[in-house]
Design brief:
Blueprint (H helix, E strand, L loop, with lengths): L8 H13 L9 H8 L16 H15 L15 H4 L3 E6 L2 H11 L5 E6 L9 H8 L9 H24 L9 H9 L7 E5 L2 H9 L14 E8 L8 H24 L3 H10 L16 H5 L2 H4 L4 E4 L16 H6 L1 E6 L6 H12 L10 E7 L3 H10 L4 H4 L8 H25 L1 H5 L8 H22 L1
Parallel strand pairs: 1-7
Antiparallel strand pairs: 2-4, 3-6, 4-7, 5-6
């Protein structure tokens, strides 16, 4: 008698086994399902006997498989992960590297590339969150009524106060644009302070170093836990988010009408006007080489302006453009050939925000969007990868020439100041409320009691609104 055919059986078994072996069996409340799972048998060929799989077990396995076929669920205030390499295909084009031969092939192919952005992460399951996003969520800062934008502003304010001199010394420049919001954030980012920036590099070897830095072996039987990842994207695919191009295009939009206006004033007749317009077509009215020091970069990188850009990236690679963000303000950044992406959202990982932006621009396009490409490299290749990097001089001393400088205190100070502001705001609100006027004389409340009062009141209001719904 032929065996019963079950679709996607291999994948169903693979992910169900991972689930059950890594604590999942304790989370199954259905006794009947547990009993059916116990009845699943292996045949003489070592394969699962499909006749031993009940409809209930098949439905259970199908549910697990579907959860891996869909992208991670986004929930505000929650850091999500990729449960499997299959799930990760929703956002990235992936290649798995499991042998030294395959690794050597990509190493030789990519180590001399200079027009690609790379990022290394020591866990393949991690999404592209900035360090500030992780702390914002994991430390529950968003629940304390803090303003994400205000915290970023405070990071820049305190970072400038403490490190302006050091940044200027490294830049060896005294123009006013060398200190701008992005240059300060990039400096803090490379010295252990959480920021909304995400580090990328033009050098494949540098990304590999970060991929294996503090690498931990897997403690589970989940496939994705056996890999670290190197993300890469050709720079031209990021052009829409290139802040240098955005500024240059903005200047060009201003230049065109001004140029036509000046030609109209100078031209003696219509024929001359047409000839002049043709002759000066595409010419630049503003000298890009004089932008540095003009204050334009400082203005364009103010957080009030940047917060309106969901995604952007900053690079000082094209010095000839005249539009520089003074990113090379740290020896760490110089050695790491650093470039940065900006994510304005406090919760969404970069790849999710990128997808949303893409779909909003391409509503009718039937395109399978991928944020970028990715190498998932087996952690068992750690020693081989490290030997390659050591031979090319990519060591801890090279990557972190100023490792003793730690700017974490800037983050702590920014949060502390925001706490003070929040407490003051709540206290003032309480003192002005009608309820305070009705209190009996002599009954006083501390600032902490005031905060607790308003938190309880806000909770009651939310319950009242939910009842109405």
């Amino acid at each position: 008698m032929p065996k019963r055919n079950i679709s996607d059986l291999e994948l169903k078994i693979k992910f169900t086994k991972e689930f059950l072996e890594n604590g999942g069996i304790k989370r199954i409340p259905d006794i009947d399902l547990l009993e059916d799972l116990e009845q699943v048998r292996t045949g003489p060929d070592g394969q699962i006997d499909t006749d031993s799989i009940s409809p209930r077990v098949n439905a259970f396995m199908r549910g697990i498989l579907v959860s891996h076929q869909l992208p991670p669920v986004f929930v505000t205030g929650h850091i999500s992960f990729y449960s499997s390499l299959l799930q990760k295909t929703n956002n990235f084009d992936q290649i798995n590297i499991d042998t030294t031969e395959k690794f050597d092939e990509i190493y030789e192919n990519f180590k001399l590339k200079d027009n690609i952005l790379f990022r290394g992460q020591r866990e393949a399951k991690w999404r592209l969150y900035s360090k500030l996003q992780r702390h914002w969520t994991l430390d529950n800062l968003f629940r304390k009524s803090k303003s994400y934008k205000t915290v970023i502003k405070r990071l820049i304010e305190f970072g400038k106060i403490k490190y302006e001199k050091q940044i200027k010394e490294i830049l060896k420049s005294h123009n006013i644009d060398c200190i701008n919001s992005v240059s300060i954030l990039s400096f803090l980012q490379h010295h252990s302070c959480p920021t909304p920036l995400l580090d990328w590099t033009y050098k494949f070897q540098n990304a590999l170093y970060f991929g294996i830095d503090d690498l931990q072996p897997s403690t589970t039987t989940i496939e994705i836990d056996n890999y670290f990842s190197i993300y890469y994207i050709e720079e031209r695919h990021f052009e829409d988010g290139n802040m240098r191009s955005i500024i240059d295009n903005g200047l060009s939009e201003i230049e065109k009408p001004l140029l036509l206006e000046e030609i109209a004033k100078i031209a003696k007749d219509e024929k001359t006007r047409i000839e002049m317009e043709d002759h000066f077509k595409g010419r630049k009215l503003f000298d890009r080489q004089k932008i540095t020091g003009s204050g334009l970069i400082e203005h364009m990188t103010r957080i009030d302006s940047l917060i309106g850009f969901p995604i952007a990236y900053f690079s000082d690679k094209d010095k000839e453009s005249g539009i520089l963000f003074s990113l090379n303000n740290s020896k760490n950044i110089l050695n790491q050939i650093g470039v940065f992406t900006w994510n304005s959202d406090p919760f969404k990982p970069l790849e999710l925000l990128g997808e949303e932006q893409f779909l909003s621009d391409k509503k009718d396009a039937d395109v399978n969007y991928k944020f970028c490409s990715c190498f998932n490299i087996n952690k068992n290749l750690y020693n081989h990868v490290k030997q390659k990097l050591d031979a090319d001089g990519i060591t801890k001393e090279f990557i972190y020439p100023t490792k003793d400088l730690n700017a974490w205190s800037i983050f702590e100070l920014a949060i502390k100041e925001e706490d003070k502001y929040y407490l003051k705001r709540i206290t003032n609100k309480y003192r002005k409320s009608k309820s305070i006027k009705k209190r009996k004389k002599g009954k006083k409340r501390t600032n902490l009691q005031i905060v607790e009062y308003w938190q309880k009141k806000r909770h009651k209001m939310k319950k009242h609104i939910l009842r109405k719904k």
